[in-house]
Amino acid sequence: FFFQAEDGIRDAQESRGLGDVYKRQTLNLACNKIRVLTGLATFFKLERLYLPHNRISSLQHLKALHGDAFSLRLIDFRDNKLSDLNELNILGGLSKLEEVYFHYKGDTNPFCANLPQYYKK
Asked: Is-contact 88 62, C-beta < 8 A?
Protein backbone atom coordinates (compact mmCIF):
# COMPACT_ATOMS: atom_id res chain seq x y z
CA PHE A 1 0.00 0.00 0.00
CA PHE A 2 1.19 3.53 -0.56
CA PHE A 3 0.07 7.10 -0.14
CA GLN A 4 0.90 10.37 -1.84
CA ALA A 5 2.22 13.11 0.38
CA GLU A 6 2.40 16.80 -0.44
CA ASP A 7 6.09 16.55 -1.23
CA GLY A 8 5.70 13.53 -3.53
CA ILE A 9 4.92 9.82 -3.34
CA ARG A 10 6.19 7.95 -0.33
CA ASP A 11 6.60 4.20 -0.52
CA ALA A 12 5.79 4.27 -4.23
CA GLN A 13 6.33 0.54 -4.44
CA GLU A 14 4.23 -1.82 -2.42
CA SER A 15 5.52 -1.93 1.11
CA ARG A 16 7.72 -4.90 1.93
CA GLY A 17 9.02 -6.00 5.29
CA LEU A 18 5.97 -4.77 7.17
CA GLY A 19 4.70 -8.25 7.81
CA ASP A 20 0.98 -8.71 7.39
CA VAL A 21 0.11 -5.01 7.49
CA TYR A 22 -3.14 -5.74 5.65
CA LYS A 23 -4.26 -7.83 8.65
CA ARG A 24 -4.01 -4.87 11.02
CA GLN A 25 -7.12 -3.81 12.90
CA THR A 26 -5.80 -0.29 13.51
CA LEU A 27 -3.90 1.87 11.04
CA ASN A 28 -2.61 5.24 12.27
CA LEU A 29 -1.34 7.54 9.52
CA ALA A 30 -1.66 10.81 11.44
CA CYS A 31 0.57 13.80 10.67
CA ASN A 32 2.05 12.54 7.37
CA LYS A 33 1.02 15.28 4.91
CA ILE A 34 -1.03 12.65 3.05
CA ARG A 35 -3.13 14.00 0.16
CA VAL A 36 -4.26 10.76 -1.48
CA LEU A 37 -4.74 7.39 0.19
CA THR A 38 -4.82 4.30 -2.01
CA GLY A 39 -4.23 0.58 -1.62
CA LEU A 40 -6.84 -0.12 1.05
CA ALA A 41 -8.73 -2.83 -0.87
CA THR A 42 -6.95 -5.68 0.95
CA PHE A 43 -7.49 -4.32 4.48
CA PHE A 44 -10.47 -6.55 5.27
CA LYS A 45 -9.74 -6.65 9.03
CA LEU A 46 -9.15 -2.91 9.40
CA GLU A 47 -11.50 -1.54 12.07
CA ARG A 48 -9.95 1.82 12.96
CA LEU A 49 -8.37 4.22 10.46
CA TYR A 50 -6.71 7.32 11.93
CA LEU A 51 -5.88 10.04 9.40
CA PRO A 52 -5.90 13.31 11.39
CA HIS A 53 -3.58 16.20 10.56
CA ASN A 54 -3.05 15.37 6.89
CA ARG A 55 -4.06 17.11 3.66
CA ILE A 56 -6.75 14.76 2.39
CA SER A 57 -9.34 16.60 0.26
CA SER A 58 -11.38 13.69 -1.09
CA LEU A 59 -12.99 10.53 0.28
CA GLN A 60 -13.13 8.81 -3.13
CA HIS A 61 -10.49 6.20 -2.21
CA LEU A 62 -12.68 4.91 0.62
CA LYS A 63 -14.88 3.28 -2.02
CA ALA A 64 -12.30 0.47 -1.97
CA LEU A 65 -13.63 -0.40 1.51
CA HIS A 66 -17.31 -0.62 0.53
CA GLY A 67 -19.21 -3.82 1.22
CA ASP A 68 -19.84 -6.34 3.97
CA ALA A 69 -16.42 -7.98 3.60
CA PHE A 70 -14.75 -5.00 5.31
CA SER A 71 -14.67 -4.30 9.06
CA LEU A 72 -14.05 -0.54 9.22
CA ARG A 73 -15.89 0.91 12.22
CA LEU A 74 -14.06 4.19 12.95
CA ILE A 75 -12.42 6.86 10.79
CA ASP A 76 -10.71 9.96 12.13
CA PHE A 77 -10.39 12.72 9.51
CA ARG A 78 -9.77 15.65 11.86
CA ASP A 79 -7.73 18.53 10.45
CA ASN A 80 -7.71 17.64 6.76
CA LYS A 81 -8.85 19.57 3.68
CA LEU A 82 -12.32 18.08 3.14
CA SER A 83 -14.59 20.78 1.72
CA ASP A 84 -17.29 19.03 -0.36
CA LEU A 85 -20.25 17.88 1.73
CA ASN A 86 -21.38 15.60 -1.12
CA GLU A 87 -18.30 13.45 -0.51
CA LEU A 88 -19.86 12.32 2.76
CA ASN A 89 -22.22 10.12 0.72
CA ILE A 90 -19.24 7.82 0.13
CA LEU A 91 -19.33 6.88 3.81
CA GLY A 92 -22.74 5.26 3.24
CA GLY A 93 -21.04 2.32 1.51
CA LEU A 94 -18.99 1.51 4.61
CA SER A 95 -21.44 -1.01 6.01
CA LYS A 96 -19.96 -1.34 9.51
CA LEU A 97 -18.99 2.28 10.09
CA GLU A 98 -20.09 3.55 13.53
CA GLU A 99 -17.87 6.57 14.27
CA VAL A 100 -16.46 9.35 12.08
CA TYR A 101 -14.55 12.36 13.33
CA PHE A 102 -14.15 15.52 11.25
CA HIS A 103 -13.85 18.12 14.01
CA TYR A 104 -12.59 18.12 17.58
CA LYS A 105 -11.37 21.04 19.68
CA GLY A 106 -10.37 23.19 16.73
CA ASP A 107 -8.99 20.39 14.56
CA THR A 108 -11.43 20.71 11.70
CA ASN A 109 -12.11 20.49 7.96
CA PRO A 110 -13.31 23.36 5.73
CA PHE A 111 -16.87 21.99 5.37
CA CYS A 112 -17.36 22.01 9.18
CA ALA A 113 -17.32 25.81 9.16
CA ASN A 114 -20.67 25.71 7.36
CA LEU A 115 -22.19 23.34 9.92
CA PRO A 116 -22.38 25.11 13.30
CA GLN A 117 -24.37 22.24 14.80
CA TYR A 118 -21.94 19.54 13.61
CA TYR A 119 -21.29 16.59 15.89
CA LYS A 120 -20.14 13.00 15.39
CA LYS A 121 -22.61 10.20 14.96
From this structure: no
Predicted structure pTM score: 0.75
> How far are the Cα atoms of 2, 51, 54, 90, 97 from residue 12, in angstroms, in the given order?
6, 19, 18, 26, 29
Pair 31, 54: CB distance under 8 Å? yes
First to last CA, the chain: 29
Measured over the CA atoms of residue 48, residue 52, residue 58 and residue 61, the dihedral's sign is: negative
CB 22 within 8 Å of CB 43: yes
- Report the amino acid identity of residue 81: K
| Cβ atoms of 17 and 43 closer than 8 Å | no
Q: What tens-digit pLDDT sequence spans the chain (121 residues)?
A: 444 444 444 444 454 544 566 677 999 999 999 999 888 888 899 999 999 999 999 999 999 999 999 999 999 999 999 988 889 999 999 999 999 988 767 667 777 776 666 554 4
